[in-house]
Specification:
With 483 residues, the protein is mainly β. The protein has three domains: 30-300, TolB, C-terminal domain (Neuraminidase, 6 Propeller), CATH 2.120.10.30; 317-387, Sandwich (Immunoglobulin-like); 404-480, Immunoglobulin-like (Sandwich). It contains no helices and 36 strands. The strands form nine sheets. Strands 23, 30, 32, 33, 35 and 36 form a six-stranded mixed beta sheet that branches. The protein is elongated.
Length: 483
């Protein structure tokens, strides 16, 4: 079933899927596989991670373990919330109805569950009786306190209306912010992403996430992740074709430019309804790249960004003093202490501080002159100073201390990284946690003004321990419009 019309055009008729080709070359950042419970003839989509399994939407044929196989005269079977349990990395149980208390003869799903409040949010047709005789049965969001054994009464999201659809709920970890998609009036395109806050038990008027996220096309299937990261699907933002999965991050009340996830998660087919575990190591998404909608799992092969700290600037600073003079002596009458730092500079004093402009080996010489006599009093203190950079990944760019300009390339170079324990073999550049290059240096064009985080992960083999190590640093860059 064409995902652009799924659960939106609710006239109960069959819609044939439009099959699109899959991009041939896959990225090495993700490993994906089609899950075994998918069918060839029906749709499985919009997975939700719950306990040891998945809850998802499907119109697959209902078997003996289902309450009833509802079907219209023209063959339409509504979507229901089903559940599977993962036995191991390859085996899953057969799909069963997620909850008989929610199961009905109208469309149900997608869904979202807040473990903190034990509240389940799900999409459903507004009219539940005599549905097959009603052509304009729009969709809304409903919620209920849920556990495997208890279901409290189902409540309507207060902004459901028969004039437009509210679909695809995604609830925040603390249960106070609900993200969803809607074609309500006042949006930017056919469907936009909105959010509503739960304040003192009341949901606030939905707010549109604005033109940074929403476009003149369709934005659907939001998935709010920790640290204000929002994954969603769009058919407009630099899409490869159909719906693609994008990531945007909210910083200082502004959403960053949506960045598409890499192949093989995205393809020239419809790719949508992305969800992931708490570490982004594994997750699931929906795609129709093989014909009907299927659920795929993914394993994240990207470097971990955990512990990626802000870059320290290399200052190569040292303190020098005459070792034969007590620490509490600031000066000695008639004597001048002159330090030559072997870099073309010098300074006077019993104790001095000097910063070399670059790393290297320097021969520092101390000369002591007696102002009452014609000769040099002492000139034999020669120190060998090794100025080394911090042991870290180092991102070099002329724009770090100033700003970059929107629409113009900014150069980044990782060759100055100092990692003596490894021989670097892999370079992974990230802009706001979306990988953009695997070269030692890169040029990146920022389309929109704002503050961005640039991260570089370097991997290499430790020759002593014969194991691969990983290092990461980040810098912050401000992009402005050139006046």
């Amino acid at each position: 079933m064409n995902v652009n019309k799924k659960h939106i055009v609710v006239v109960l008729v069959l819609v044939l899927a439009f099959i699109k080709p899959v991009k041939a070359q896959d990225s090495s950042l993700y490993k994906v596989q089609r899950l075994p419970f998918n069918t060839r003839s029906y749709s499985e989509y919009a997975p939700m991670i719950l306990d040891d399994g998945l809850v998802f939407c499907s119109n697959m044929k209902l078997f003996k373990n289902f309450p009833k196989d509802y079907k219209t005269k023209n063959g339409y079977r509504p979507y229901n919330l089903l559940k599977v349990i993962q036995k191991d990395s390859l085996k899953w149980t057969s799909p069963k109805v997620f909850s008989k208390d929610i199961f009905s003869k109208v469309n149900e799903g997608p869904s979202s569950f807040c473990d903190f409040t034990k509240t389940l949010f799900f999409t459903r047709n507004l009219l539940t009786k005599n549905t097959f005789a009603v052509e304009n049965n729009t969709l809304g969001i409903f919620y209920t306190m849920w556990s495997p054994s208890i279901l409290i009464s189902i409540s309507d999201f207060p902004f459901n209306k028969p004039d437009y659809n509210i679909v695809d709920p995604s609830i925040s970890e603390d249960g106070t912010i609900l993200y969803f998609a809607s074609d309500m009036p006042g949006g930017f395109g056919s469907f936009d992403i909105y959010r509503s806050y739960l304040k003192r038990g009341v949901w606030t008027t939905p707010e549109n996430l604005g033109p940074s996220v929403n476009s003149a096309g369709m934005e659907r299937y939001p998935f709010i992740y920790q640290d204000n990261r929002l994954y969603f699907s769009s058919d407009t933002h630099t899409s490869m074709g159909g719906l693609d999965v994008f990531l945007t991050i909210e910083k200082d009340s502004t959403w960053t430019k949506p960045e598409p996830l890499d192949v093989p998660i995205n393809s020239t087919a419809d790719d949508f309804a992305f969800v992931a575990d708490s570490g982004l190591a594994t997750g699931y998404f929906s795609t129709n790249r093989l014909g009907s909608d299927d659920i795929f799992s993914f394993t994240n092969l990207m470097p971990s960004l955990v512990g990626c700290s802000e870059q320290r600037e290399n200052k190569y600073c040292f303190r020098f003093k005459d070792r034969k003079v007590a620490d509490d002596v600031d000066s000695i009458p008639n004597l001048i202490y002159k330090w030559d730092f072997d870099d073309g500079t010098s300074d006077n004093g019993i104790r001095v501080r000097h910063c070399f402009s670059d790393s290297g080996v320097y021969k520092v010489k101390l000369t002591i002159t007696d102002t009452l006599g014609p000769d040099v009093f002492y000139s034999e203190e020669i120190l060998t100073v090794v100025a080394k950079p911090w042991e870290q990944v180092y991102i070099n760019t002329p724009n770090i201390d100033t700003v970059g300009f929107a629409g113009e390339p900014v150069q980044f170079d990782g060759s100055s990284s100092y990692l003596p324990e490894i021989a670097p073999s892999e370079f992974h550049w990230f802009v706001n946690e979306n990988m953009v290059s695997d070269k030692v240096n890169m040029a990146y064009v920022f389309d929109q003004p704002g503050e961005y985080e640039i991260k570089l992960v370097i991997k290499g083999m430790d020759s002593k321990k014969e194991e691969k190590k990983e290092y990461c640093s980040l810098v912050k860059l401000v992009i402005v419009e050139r006046k």
